[in-house]
Amino acid sequence: MMTVAKTYALEMNLNGKNVRLEVSASATLASVLRESLGLTGTKIGCEEGECGACTVLVDGDPVDSCIYPALKAAGRKVLTIEGLARGKEVEELHPVQRAFVEHGAVQCGYCTPGLVMTAVALLQHNPHPSEDEIRRAISGNLCRCTGYLKVIRAIQEASKAG
Asked: According to the model, what pLDDT value does residue 3 have?
């Protein structure tokens, strides 16, 4: 006899829109975003909360969505990389996204969504961070391509725009 996994209702505000779906108790926010909602901008790297590729904002705070229980997002505001831009043109990008493009801080792009989301959270909490504060904020986001200098410069530029 086959047993059916129990699901629970998850209601959250996702990128400015209220969504409701059924999820298993063990589902992570990253898996729900990617597999159930088709938002693949949130990347999966280590699946242990160590690399930052899966960073999204929950109520304005960065979280590692690969280890964040989906049901914990109930009633909260979740913002993903897809929710930042108003469109696909450079002029419509969020200031952090635009600065990343303009400073060449994207490289292969795999870590970029997590770095951008971390930077957005930093600038919301601290609009004019020092270089040391930026380095501390992005210390949980691993990148093998950029060497971080372009990322830091992009975040500094975005802080001037905001």
From this structure: 65
